[in-house]
Amino acid sequence: MVTPRHPNDTVTIAPGVLLTIARMATLNVEGVVRMGSTPGGVDRLFRRVPAANGVQIAVNGDTVTAHLYVVADALTNLREMSVSIQKSVARSIQEILGMNVESVNIHIEDVHFSQPPESDTSQ
């Protein structure tokens, strides 16, 4: 932890920084094809939860809760991929920002097939 030089010194991290760190840590996990859609609506607006490009972040003091919305490769083990995302995002936030991570919640919105399924044309 960094010790302030003066008692009134502050460091402010923009919410976009957290969103970018979480998104990049997620996209680097094998099996993640792309980020999904972040749910919006009035509920999110009133809570003022930063969200963008498949990532929602809630900050309470120096503790972070992340919700990540992903599209996964259909041939990937979804459970293993999700655990890898959780570890990657938590580690990135802790190492880069020095913040505690309460939870990293993965929402798999869809699966992506790289090859379309073969249709049976013999009938």
Summarize the structure.
The protein is an alpha+beta fold.
Number of structurally distinct domains: 1
Tally of DSSP helical segments: 3
Q: Could you describe the largest sheet, including whether it forms a barrel?
A: 5 strands, mixed
What is the CATH fold-level name?
A: Alpha-Beta Plaits
Task: Indicate the overall shape.
Answer: elongated
The low-confidence runs, each spanning 5 or more residues with pLDDT under 50, are 42-47
Question: What CATH first level would be assigned?
Answer: Alpha Beta
| Ends distance | 68 Å
Overall radius of gyration: 18 Å
Overview of the molecule:
The structure is a single chain. By secondary structure, the chain is of the alpha+beta class. The chain has a single domain (15-112), classed as Cation efflux protein, cytoplasmic domain (Alpha-Beta Plaits, 2-Layer Sandwich), CATH 3.30.70.1350. 32% of the residues lie in helices and 29% in strands. It has helices spanning 15-27, 42-47, 78-97, and strands at residues 32-35, 51-52, 55-60, 63-73, 100-112. Strands 1, 2, 3, 4 and 5 form a five-stranded mixed sheet that branches. The longest helix is centred in the last third of the chain and has 20 residues, at 78-97.
